[in-house]
Amino acid sequence: MGLVCRVVEEAGIPTVCLSTGRDLTQQVRPPRSVFVNFPMGNAFGAPFDSGSQMAILRAVLACAVTAREPGTLTDLPLTWPKPFALEPGKSRM
Amino acid sequence: MTTTTTGPIAYVEGLAKHYGSMGHPPYQWTINTDAPWTSLTRPLSQCRVTMLTSGGISLCNMPAFDPMARNDHRLDAIPVTAGSTDFQIHDSYYDHRDADQDINCQFPIDRLRELASSGEIGSLAPRFWSGFMGRIYNRSKVLTESGPAFADELKRDGVDLLIAVPA
After folding, report:
1. Dihedral of the CA atoms A24, B131, A62, A65 (nearest 10)?
2. What interhelical angle do A2-10 and B147-156 show, nearest 10?
3. Would A12 be classed as within a structural domain?
4. ipTM attached to this prediction
5. Tens digits of per-residue pLDDT, B108-161?
6. Looking at chain A, which residue has its C-alpha nearest residue B102?
7. Which of B2, B31, B37 is most worth mutating to test chain A (most A CB atoms within 10 A of its CB)?
8. Distance CA A58, CA B121 (A)
9. Is the CB of A17 less than 8 angstroms away from the CB of B110?
10. pLDDT value, residue B5
């Protein structure tokens, strides 16, 4: 996805990527990214928590306005309420 | 959930271990040291915005994504008026049980529509997007074919800003 952002940006359209995989995003280095330390699949928070969804969406949009350096990665100061882990292949299809 | 974490999960290491245990060679991640740049030239209140998900999300009246897909460059255009309960998710790569209940926790189309209604963003493009699902190994095709074709579609819609949400 970071690669797609890079291609779109190169074509002349600004992009912001909302990442839940900080190390992955750091490597691919999309032009602007926002990291939220939430489980993959909950990038904008919990279901039906429209307040958090909106707050994260606004933070993403703000990054589009404030970022000045190519490859900017902004960490959101949010904490997921429960421990979570990487479990590829164990989730539902 | 077997492991607890406080800091960011080490996905590079974890995925290499997981797929290594299945006999796959380590994934050669792209490592870039710089990034392209296009400045946002107008305030958000004048921007036309759209959003892309790579989470195997499709409209119920479209075919499901292949949950085990490899090198799937499928890209669906989703009408901006699509109902937020009209989606299905098929992707073995992540836990989407929450997003199955409320698409907005991964693909917040209702929240974006609210921002467009209130004028915080100028407008939404006529189409949202879903594609570039995980595990694309032929990355040069993204760089030379499917990515540029997507950028052309965004230009056709007059998009000023793309929000991308990987999964």
Report:
1. 100
2. 60
3. yes
4. 0.95
5. 999 999 999 999 999 999 999 999 986 777 889 999 999 999 999 999 999 999
6. A47
7. B37
8. 10
9. no
10. 52
Note whether A16 contacts B38, CB cutoff 8 Å.
no
Would you say A18 and B108 are in contact if contact means Cβ atoms under 8 Å apart? Answer: no
Greater confidence, B7 or B56? B56
**CB nearest B94 (choices: A6, A16, A40):** A40
Instruction: Give the integer Cα–Cα distance in Å for B62 and B148.
Output: 24
Provide the number of structural domains found in chain A: 1
- B80 conformational bin, left if phi > 0, alpha if psi -120 to 50, beta if neither: alpha
Closest to A44 (Cβ–Cβ): which among B14, B106, B132? Answer: B106
CA distance B156 to B124: 13
Least confident of B20-24, B61-65, B78-82, B148-152: B20-24
Tokens 């290491």 locate to: B13
Measured torsion, CA atoms of residues A15, A18, A20, A25, in degrees rounded to the nearest 10 = 20
Q: How far apart, in whole angstroms, are the C-alpha atoms of residue B98 and residue B86? A: 15
Q: Is residue A22 part of a domain?
A: yes
Give chain A's largest Cα–Cα span: 40
Sequence-ordered list of residues with C-beta below 8 angstroms from that of B59, at least 6 positions apart, any chain = B76, B78, B82, B86, B87, B88
